[in-house]
């Protein structure tokens, strides 16, 4: 057998080249990040530019479709002078509160229902038909039913947000539970897990990416629910702002409110993504993104 | 030399002794095939494992070994016949059992130590104690440096060792293992075999061990079941009366061992060839 | 003939009844017109469609013509259906202390939507009775069920709405009439002049090139107005689709009998109507403030006058 | 070695007992099916019974919440006499056509976008933010924009149904693509699959259960979108029927229309489930449901 | 007897011959561990496989064997160093390669025959021909009766055989196999080995074969790489000059075979023990 310890020289060369390789990899990552941001901005600028030009030259009628500069003026005047219903931040706060409550209740309800029905075949067979019926009810009609039943306060908007969120989350949680690996469930069972422990330690983690996928889309839905609720009758909120602007043929106002809603959605989206990255850190990276 | 096929055990239709740890009594199990027909996976299968007995199962691939273990755990139900564990009919998945699956069944979202500690935690062991025992077992399977790794960051053999630690830590009264060591190199395999025998003799547990390595089977077992090519049924049963404790590194050189292995090997080869010719006939 | 599409701001609403009635009586066909009625309860939608040129006419409130002119969009009423808004300020039975708009102080007033005519009229009533904006709160509650629920839940102490919500609340006794604007007389009393409301209007630019169609439409509508003036509520209801009173036919007839008087007998705009509207609107509508409105461009009686 | 062929006797006994076991298993299945149907009916009857009683004794105000008998009368009169807008089947047909078009376009668009963005990290990073923005736009406001842009005809309703469906399907297709097993993709690649073949033969099949889960919930959404569109302005359709009934204080009419919508949703749901069972027949049954 | 470790090959830092089928040149690969540190999986790894050469790789579990194969396929990229296949640097996943994964990578939604026919279909073979060849290969791996079954309806060993057929049917110029036969019984394994050798000599392909079974390695290979315990690097390389064609059933009884196996075994055991003691040290 030959001596196989590498010469000290070679080890030093290797370590140096690894350091270089790693700093190169980091630089690549930074560069990519900058490119993504750049591209996003480019798209945004091109889009807004075309819109503004279109509005200026009347390809796009600003009476109907507003114009970026008009929208910006509207937002600025809301910020500085407040809206007809009071300060802008209050409108945002009211809508956000309704949305958030509706989102949390709807998501928890959807997850719970999804898990219970996903774990119990008989319940699923019996009840899923009723869930499907409920899902076919037009939300706008439900809106008036909620206003009749719950009044014009926050409750009816929250309820509308809940019904927007519930079905999406339910459908995914249900399917996520059904997709849980049967060998893994069997393993947990044999290791001594009670049905409840199986649910918490196997079913929920494996349905997690399903649930998270539905949360991404359903926060937007909760927002829509709250705004529609405010549309039907409210004292405060972004929905009322839109409705008033519509009534006054103020397209800039309508689009300005929608942009504020979009920013709200993006902020929450960012938080959900953070949460998701925390939860799924155990996940393998795709091949090729793996070695350092 | 008392080496004799105990085929009588298979042929006798008398109920197995009530006090057996595992009793599979004249079981047939059929699956529905993709074209809607029924396929018999195992047929007229009878097998008894006494308390504290170590049984190995060998047979050609696809003959029904994993199916048999799944019957004992309660993951599959027999079409006809009865399966009893510790004297009780199997109705649900039993907690007395330890099962090392043939395929990977680790929890991918749990690190190695969380995977190994799962069993004790499920069974209500206090957290500190569960993790201490888990750490102990991780050391025993040689993965001390990988406690915090997730399964996808381990090699195939390492994952298998995590699965072993996960099962062993529960110190099950009944231990079922489906080709547990086939992904390990010889040296690690020997160490694991010693670990298994230690656990077994300490716990007086009953073991059913499926393997393709006949020498491994003979080295470990009290009793070796040879199955026929699928639909599987018991072809012969051999009692291995090599003295215990057995030292895995040395036993292969025992002349008695070599002789036993040869006899069973001839029996098995006959069966495997039969199975092969049968599938090849209907090859295309 | 080309198809003419007309948006109706709620086909089942009694204030817009002439549109469907004309169709039911076959008057459009008699004129050789192929008219299609489309329902759209949100007034804004209807105006937008009209301005976008997707439809030829709208049956809606006259005040929109004024409002739109302030935004540089010209539409005009060619047949005026009603000379009263057909709206009533109701007061909840729980609040007998409110005896006139002067008692609105501290109250929450229900309106169908902010920026709607109920909004402006409610405010106008309050201001006319000596209140300042801010003494009362406006709450948009829509019409119909949600309005009734708001009264029941005491979320509004008074509110302005139209038939059949009025009849429904009166029937159950949950509210009573505070200010009635269903007849020209009472409207004059409340607002100081007639308030032309439901009307048929078209885009001015369209009118230029389609005098012929406009005339035929006016003919059909004027004939309908005459039919209404010469028939009882019962007879009119018989002509209407059953679904419009599926809830309760008696109620529908009763409401119609009470509200029939708001309709003009001949489709003609009352001369002192438009100034009243401008007065009400310019008190509250921000978009009108500081704008010069040419009322003569918001309506024309030429077609009604020529109608055979 | 002992002779091991079983006696003929024993074989006969075995075959007989297998036959018995199998017929027992079939009977169990039939029995279970009957029980599920029975339970569903029981729930329905109890629910309708309580509703009717509540309405009769005025616990539930039938003016707002209708009553089962009134709803039935309304449906019957629509069937026999037609609605104010024409025959009932025409309303159903119109709404179904809009819904169906919207569903198909939205689903295909969502699947395509999900797959493209799921397969291409850069595109995903750049565009997903815009998709999130779009998803936060209240559908009712979009409805008005569509009506302005597309008119009051079918197009605007279809567009509204599309935007209801698109985001749910997109979110799931995207995540489903991301979840595809990396070893399987690598295997296909090594076996010689082009990127397109990988998409069709690995990515789509493994994202299939994700996509199907979203289709289940999104048909209901498409229906809602079409109805809301009809609400905003239409001359035919179930949404107009609801709107008219609401305007006429005809609670029975509102609920009757919603029940018709639910039946439509269930029929389509049934078809989707059939399709799903066909597509996922390769799937392992959970343990314990496996042996015959 | 020319049995000599060719360790020189490892130590030489000269670039491998440009005409080699596979050339791994002084590669180091590091992974990020869960606690954010870097872990070196393989280090200073150099390996050359000539055209038509059959190389086996043995080493303790977790030493980097699968990682090495993944480098050759392009699934992983080296941190430093270069990997060349057929003289070209590996930039993307190559279509010239056949790879039998260590874990299951069958398509669960495709039946056995559709799985096996996948490769030819991807490569544009007409459907009828692809299925005909698939049927042929299914027969060769002894699964004729299971054409229509889905993977979940097969036993572990059967699935592995489907994977083999799936790879073999492409007749790849370069064949990488990660413990392909460990789930098979001895008889089936021998048949598969013969099948592999037949394919190899017919196609003149280059093979890298990872196994834990040293005897299998010696029986099959031209060259055996022995790796050190992780971070893996080449410990020794042995050239096996047993005559070909080799008959798997008999070669184990060749005295030269036994001697070679013993020498390599001693070399390997040393390494495995080292690896074990190292992990046990840091055990807990
Ligand atoms: N779900 C199923 N549906 C249909 N057939 C099945 C199913 N599961 C297993 N089988 C069949 O049952 C037989 C026995 O399978 P089993 O997994 O028990 O074999 P095994 O002895 O464990 O083989 P191996 O040594 O390869 O693991 C095989 O022929 C297999 O095809
Ligand atoms: N994604 C990863 N992240 C971190 N470490 C990894 C990852 N993949 C592999 N490793 C580590 O790389 C080392 C080599 O793994 P590899 O799978 O190559 O081993 P192997 O030689 O194939 O072992 P076996 O014989 O058990 O299959 C192991 O220590 C493993 O923990
Ligand atoms: Mg098996
Ligand atoms: Mg490996």
What does this entry look like structurally?
By secondary structure, chain A is an all-alpha fold. Chain A folds into 2 domains: 8-60; 65-279, MetI-like (MetI-like fold, Orthogonal Bundle). Chain A has helices at residues 8-56, 62-65, 68-81, 88-119, 121-135, 139-150, 154-179, 182-191, 195-232, 238-247, 251-279. Residues 1-6 of chain A have low confidence and may be disordered. With 284 residues, chain B is α/β, with parallel strands linked by helices. Chain B is 38% helix and 21% strand. Chain B has helices at 8-11, 65-73, 112-122, 127-140, 156-168, 186-203, 214-220, 248-251, 255-281, and strands at residues 22-32, 38-49, 54-58, 80-85, 88-89, 97-100, 174-178, 206-210, 223-227, 234-239. The longest helix of chain B is centred in the C-terminal third of the chain and has 27 residues, at 255-281. Chain B is globular. The model of chain B is unreliable at 6-14 and 280-284 (pLDDT under 50). Chain C contains 14 helices and 10 strands. Chain C has helices at 17-25, 27-30, 43-52, 63-69, 117-128, 145-152, 165-172, 184-191, 204-209, 211-230, 233-239, 249-259, 273-284, 302-306; strands at residues 3-8, 34-39, 57-61, 75-80, 87-92, 108-111, 137-140, 158-162, 175-181, 198-203. The longest helix of chain C is centred in the last third of the chain and has 20 residues, at 211-230. Chains in contact: A-B, A-C, A-D, A-E, B-D, B-E, C-D, D-E. The C-D interface holds C 5, 7, 10-13, 36-42, 44-46, 48-49, 52, 54-55, 143-145, 149, 164-165, 168, 241-248, 252 and D 64, 74, 81, 83-85, 144, 147-148, 151-152, 231-235, 240-241, 243-253. Chains A, D: Keywords: Cell membrane, Membrane, Transmembrane, Transmembrane helix, Transport. Chains A, D: One of its GO terms (cellular component) is plasma membrane. Chains A, D: It comes from Mesorhizobium waimense. Chains A, D: Residues 92-272 form the ABC transmembrane type-1 domain.
């Amino acid at each position: 057998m030959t001596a196989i310890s590498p010469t000290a020289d070679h080890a030093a060369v290797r370590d140096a080249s690894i350091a270089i390789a790693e700093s190169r990899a980091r630089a690549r990552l930074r560069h990519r990040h900058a490119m993504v941001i750049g591209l996003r901005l480019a798209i945004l600028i091109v889009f807004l530019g075309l819109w503004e030009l279109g509005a200026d030259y009347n390809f796009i009628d600003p009476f109907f479709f507003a114009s970026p500069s008009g929208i910006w003026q509207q937002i600025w005047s809301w910020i500085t002078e407040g809206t007809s219903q009071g300060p802008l931040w209050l409108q945002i706060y009211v809508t956000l509160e309704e949305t958030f409550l509706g989102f949390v209740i709807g998501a928890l309800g959807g997850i719970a229902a999804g898990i219970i029905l996903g774990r119990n075949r008989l319940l699923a067979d019996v009840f899923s038909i009723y869930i499907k019926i409920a899902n076919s009810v037009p939300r706008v009609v439900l809106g008036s039913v909620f206003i009749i039943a719950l009044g014009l306060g926050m409750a009816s908007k929250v309820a509308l947000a809940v019904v927007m969120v519930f079905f999406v989350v339910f459908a995914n949680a249900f399917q996520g539970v059904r997709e849980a690996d049967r060998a893994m469930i069997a393993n947990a069972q044999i290791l001594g897990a009670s049905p409840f422990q199986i649910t918490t330690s196997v079913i929920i983690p494996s349905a997690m990416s399903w649930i998270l996928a539905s949360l991404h889309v359903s926060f937007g839905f909760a927002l829509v629910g709250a705004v529609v609720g405010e549309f039907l009758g409210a004292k405060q909120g972004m929905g009322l702002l839109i409705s008033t602007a519509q009534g006054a043929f103020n397209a800039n106002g309508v689009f300005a409110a929608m942009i504020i809603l979009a920013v709200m959605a993006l902020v929450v989206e960012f938080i959900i993504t953070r949460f998701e990255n925390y939860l799924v850190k155990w996940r393998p990276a795709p091949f090729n993104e793996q070695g350092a | 030399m008392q080496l004799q096929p105990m085929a009588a055990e298979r042929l006798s239709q008398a109920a197995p002794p009530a006090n057996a740890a595992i009793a599979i009594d004249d079981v047939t199990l059929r699956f529905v095939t993709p074209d809607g027909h029924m396929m018999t996976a195992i047929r007229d299968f009878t097998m008894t494992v006494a308390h504290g007995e170590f049984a190995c199962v060998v047979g050609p691939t696809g003959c029904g070994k994993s199916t048999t273990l799944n019957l004992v755990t309660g993951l599959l139900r027999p079409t006809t016949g009865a399966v009893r564990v510790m004297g009780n009919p199997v109705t649900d998945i039993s907690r007395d059992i330890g099962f090392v699956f043939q395929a990977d069944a680790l929890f991918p979202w749990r690190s190695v130590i969380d995977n190994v500690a799962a069993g004790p935690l499920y069974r209500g062991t206090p957290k500190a104690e569960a993790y201490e025992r888990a750490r102990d077992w991780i050391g025993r399977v040689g993965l001390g440096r990988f406690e915090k790794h997730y399964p996808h960051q381990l090699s195939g053999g390492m994952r298998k060792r995590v699965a072993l630690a996960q099962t062993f830590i529960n110190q099950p009264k009944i231990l079922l293992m489906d080709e547990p060591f086939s992904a390990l190199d010889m040296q690690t395999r020997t160490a694991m075999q010693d670990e298994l025998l230690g656990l077994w003799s300490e716990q007086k547990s009953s073991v059913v061990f499926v393997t393709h390595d006949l020498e491994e089977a003979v080295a470990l077992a009290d009793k070796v079941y040879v199955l026929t090519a699928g639909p599987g049924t018991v072809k012969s049963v051999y009692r291995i009366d090599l003295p215990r404790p057995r030292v895995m590194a040395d036993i292969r050189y025992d002349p008695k061992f070599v002789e036993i292995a040869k006899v069973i090997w001839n029996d098995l080869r006959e069966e495997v060839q039969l199975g092969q010719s049968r599938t090849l006939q209907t090859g295309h | 003939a080309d198809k003419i599409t007309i948006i109706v701001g709620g086909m089942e609403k009694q204030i817009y009844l002439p549109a469907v009635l004309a169709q039911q009586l076959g008057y459009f066909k008699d004129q050789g017109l192929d008219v299609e009625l489309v329902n759209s309860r949100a007034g804004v939608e209807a105006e937008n469609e009209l301005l976008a040129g997707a439809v030829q006419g709208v049956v809606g409130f006259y005040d929109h013509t004024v409002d739109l002119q302030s935004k540089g969009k010209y539409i005009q009423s060619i047949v005026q259906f009603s000379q009263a808004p057909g709206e009533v300020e109701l007061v909840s039975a729980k609040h007998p202390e409110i005896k006139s708009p002067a008692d609105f102080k501290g109250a929450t007033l229900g309106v169908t939507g902010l920026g709607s005519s109920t909004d402006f009229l409610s405010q106008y009533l309050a201001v006319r009775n000596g209140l300042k904006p801010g003494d009362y709160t406006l709450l948009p509650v829509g019409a119909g069920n949600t309005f009734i629920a708001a009264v029941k839940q005491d979320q509004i102490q008074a509110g302005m709405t139209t038939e059949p919500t009025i009849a429904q609340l009166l029937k159950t006794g949950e509210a009573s009439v505070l200010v009635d604007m269903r007849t020209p007389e009472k409207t004059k009393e409340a607002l100081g002049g007639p308030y032309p409301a439901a009307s048929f209007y078209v885009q001015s630019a369209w009118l230029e090139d389609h005098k012929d169609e406009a005339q035929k439409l006016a003919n059909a509508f004027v004939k309908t107005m005459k039919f209404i003036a010469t028939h009882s509520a019962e007879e009119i209801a018989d002509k209407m689709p059953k679904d419009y009173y599926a809830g309760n036919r008696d109620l529908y007839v009763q409401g119609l009998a009470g509200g029939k008087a708001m309709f003009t007998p001949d489709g003609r705009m009352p001369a002192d109507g438009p100034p009243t509207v401008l007065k009400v609107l310019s008190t509250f509508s921000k978009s009108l403030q500081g704008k010069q409105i040419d009322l003569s461009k918001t309506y024309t009686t030429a077609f009604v006058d020529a109608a055979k």
